[in-house]
Design goal:
alpha/beta; Endonuclease, Chain A; seven-stranded mixed sheet
């Protein structure tokens, strides 16, 4: 088993593994802009290796690039499949070479994740884990249900909640966590219970509940794009799922739990360095902050596209004419409806904003 640490390790181990492939390469992609990896996949296909890419049906802001990637890979003799749209996201990322070696990654195949973000990946030849990853890949390619066959191979929304709950609850001394947003209520309760029992808990990333007393800090000097948990210096989890309800219950996320003492020690060293350099939140408001303007604009645009205003105005005119039995001047209808909509929207936005700020807008990374 080998650890990949980003930034630093880059894609060399990945491209070398693809270049060694003799029979098959299976790759699950959510985001992708790494030319070196694309070239390695092309070389593999050219020498007769069966290269099979499973590409997410959607991601935030990058669907065009995903569809363009599909076309490029197809032109180069690579078999391409697209995930189903039954889940909100297919967010897992891994690579299997010759059915013998698994690269389970917290980072995407992108320059941003690999060169400018703290992230991890793990490479394993353990037969059970490789077989589970291959089986998941085939199920998602064929759009068949996947049933977990290994508790250490962590798949959302199948066994991730149970597996990660058990892992957290076992802690007796220490839990070191990288996570952009720990917010799932049941897992927060487990963490609070462990803290009360004297377990040292440190979170680099964020905690979604501003009432929580769990200690956390923001990564300093680079972007965070990993989900990892170190338990008692003995075991670790690396994967794509945050401790958030959405990522545990409504998205395809993939990770593994392992107990390699050397890798856990290496990750712990990186964590302690990051923790020492990290910035604690300045206030409870900062701890719960969300990208309000960006989110509000996105939601407003979506509502504008979908809100059918013209039929509403027509209905108002019909009702006014029927009730008043008279012709209604257009300018009066316009001003009346405009003011009524303003008042109604103001009340609705006020109520909705309360709920959004309370629960936080779901964030995808």
């Amino acid at each position: 088993m080998k650890l990949l640490v980003q930034p630093g390790d880059g894609v060399e181990a990945i491209t070398r593994a693809i270049d060694r492939a003799r029979r098959s390469v299976q790759i699950m992609i959510f985001r992708f802009d790494q030319k070196a990896v694309e070239q390695a996949l092309t070389r593999a296909a050219e020498r007769g290796v069966f290269v099979h890419a499973l590409i997410a049906f959607t991601n935030r802001g990058g669907e065009r690039s995903l569809r363009a990637l599909e076309q490029r890979l197809l032109r180069r003799g690579i078999t391409v499949a697209q995930t189903a749209d039954d889940l909100i996201r297919y967010h897992g990322k891994f690579l299997i070479v010759d059915g013998r070696e698994l690269f389970l990654l917290a980072f995407n195949f992108t320059h941003l994740d690999i060169e400018r973000s703290r992230s991890f990946g793990v490479v394993t030849s353990e037969a059970k884990l490789v077989a589970e990853a291959s089986r998941l890949f085939e199920c998602d390619v064929k759009r068949l249900p996947y049933r977990a066959g290994c508790n250490r191979f962590v798949v959302s929304p199948v066994n991730a909640r149970a597996a990660l709950s058990r892992s957290l609850a076992r802690a007796r001394k220490e839990l070191l966590i990288y996570d952009p947003e720990v917010s799932d209520p049941s897992l927060l309760r487990i963490l609070e219970e462990r803290a009360t029992a004297g377990v040292r808990i440190c979170i680099i990333g964020g905690v979604g509940d501003r009432k929580s007393s769990l200690p956390w800090r923001r990564l300093n000097g680079m972007r965070l794009h990993t989900r990892a948990i170190l338990c008692d210096g003995k075991s670790a989890f690396i994967g794509s799922q945050s401790l958030r309800k959405l990522e545990l219950d409504a998205r395809r996320e993939v990770g593994i739990i392992f107990a390699s003492s050397s890798i856990v020690a290496e990750m712990r060293k990186v964590f302690e360095q990051d923790w020492a350099a990290a910035k604690p939140p300045k206030s409870a408001k900062q701890a719960a902050r969300i990208p309000v303007k960006k989110t509000a604009k996105r939601v407003a645009k979506a509502i504008t596209r979908k809100l059918a205003v013209k039929p509403v105005v027509s209905q108002v005119v019909d009702v006014l004419r029927r009730d008043a039995a008279l012709d209604v001047p257009p300018h009066e209808v316009e001003e009346t409806v405009k003011q009524a909509l303003k008042d109604a929207l103001k009340d609705a936005v006020h109520d909705a904003a309360k709920k959004v700020v309370k629960s936080a807008v779901e964030q995808e990374l």
